[in-house]
Amino acid sequence: MDSPGETRRYGRRTFLAVTAAGLSSLAWGKPVWQAFSHATQPLQDALLPPGLLPDGWRIYTVAASMPRFDPGTWRLQIDGLVEQPQSLTYDELRRLPRAEQVSTFHCVTGWSVKNVRWAGVRFRDLLAPARPLANGTVLSFVSAEKPYVDTLTLRQAELHDAMLAYEMDGAPLAREHGAPVRVVIPEMYGYKNVKWVERITVADAVESGYWEQRGYDVDAWVGRSNGF
Amino acid sequence: MASDPRYVRRFSRTERTLHWVHASAFFVLLASGLILYLPSLSELVGRRPFVKDVHFDTALAWLVAIALVVALGDRRGLRRTLAELDAFDEDDRLWLRRIDRPQGRFNAGQKVNAALTAAFALLFTVSGFLLWYGERDHRFRFASTILLHDGLMYVSLVLLVGHLYLALIYPATRHALRGMTTGSVRRDWALQHHRKWVDEDG
């Protein structure tokens, strides 16, 4: 009880309580927040106009500016250990068998975006015309954003939900998401999902990608790599 | 000005320097942070590695500047201020329950704001350091770090809007800004808002 005239040290108590809550949230923040936003999802849908809050994406880039897609001059090169190197226009790429999926995108820094609708080409269909050689077991994805590069083994690229995507949430891939095409491999963290892909080189050995040269794991399985 | 009897001195040079160092660093950190955080701004500005450096270097400069002001400024005065901010008497407790009671140099709301600002500064620093260091040593990467950093930003933004409203717009309180720029405020205003302090100082 407060007795009249008594002075209480609420200042330091407030400081210590907020600091303790904040520091401990490093242990409980994400699960609690996920449960909370899941529970209040209907409310958010009812009350908030779409687009008011950030949609959950953060745009990570490594170069001074984002590549700009010009449909007239853009080509996707497929080369390396193949019988028939390819140079595909955007229209030729769009005529390949179309695949669609809904999957969750996880970033290694802790954020995730649920239920992203992707459309694109499965790697098996994309590579078939080039006829990879038997020793070609690795795909190296070169981004138009220099010097970004990353690799997947052929087995990883042929997972049922991996693709080279050209649509996201019903629209052509936006510039900040890697227009016109990006890698989508939901079982791995975002840095393996190379944006602005302009060249796929078939190789026989895994190379370290941009972030892997900076200490990240080559096999970036969600929940089973990079210290998680 | 100090001799003008119509005015009383509210904030020392050290206090004002501390306030403006914190305020200017906060705006640069907020602007660069939003560019890193909001996709539309990220696309507009580009140059992410540069913006990241600006954000990080500003944070370092802010910490160094705060340490310098404390080291070179009026430390005894700061300790006294800290004790004032810490202590809530009965009038403060009633004031927080929206009962009009005479207040000291800081009203109870300003004391709460100071405690929150200090805690947030510490939490921003810790979570920011973890975001930076976690990129280099994965044992220091936690899934919730970025959530803490973002959450602090959102709450700070709300506090900042309230602070700016009271300091720049709300007629009854905006005279307080003069205290933070020149150091002194009108005696009649102080008597109305901080009577116990004026009475004490005579």
Q: Summary?
A:
Chain A has 228 residues and is of the alpha+beta class.
Would you mind describing this structure in some detail?
With 228 residues, chain A is an alpha+beta fold. In chain A, the strands form 2 sheets. A 5-stranded mixed sheet of chain A has the order 2-1-10-5-6. Chain A has 5 helices and 10 strands; from the N terminus they run ααββαββαββαββββ. Chain A folds into 2 domains: 10-47, no CATH class; 76-214, Oxidoreductase, molybdopterin-binding domain (Sulfite Oxidase, Chain A, domain 2), CATH 3.90.420.10. Chain A is elongated, with a radius of gyration of 23 Å. The N and C termini of chain A lie far apart (46 Å). Chain B is an all-alpha fold and 202 residues long. Chain B has a single domain (9-201), classed as Up-down Bundle (Fumarate Reductase Cytochrome B subunit). Chain B has 10 helices and 2 strands. Chain B has a two-stranded antiparallel sheet with strand order 1-2. The longest helix of chain B has 27 residues, at 108-134. Chain B is elongated and about 55 Å long. The model of chain B has no long low-confidence stretch (mean pLDDT 94).
Detail the poorly predicted runs of chain B. Answer: none
SSE series of chain B: EHHHHHHHHEHH
Total beta strands of chain B: 2
Classified in CATH, the superfamily of the largest domain in chain A is Oxidoreductase, molybdopterin-binding domain
Number of helices of chain B: 10
- Largest contact between protein chains? A-B, 48 and 49 residues
The tally of domains of chain B stands at: 1
Write the layout of secondary structure elements.
The complex is a heterodimer of chains A (228) and B (202).
Chain A: H1 10-39, H2 41-47, E1 76-80, E2 86-88, H3 90-94, E3 99-106, E4 112-121, H4 123-127, E5 138-143, E6 149-153, H5 154-157, E7 163-168, E8 171-172, E9 182-184, E10 197-203
Chain B: E1 7-9, H1 13-37, H2 39-45, H3 48-72, H4 75-86, H5 90-96, H6 108-134, H7 145-169, H8 176-181, E2 184-186, H9 187-193, H10 195-201
Antiparallel strand pairs in B: 1-2
Helix pairs in contact in B: 1-2, 1-3, 6-7, 9-10
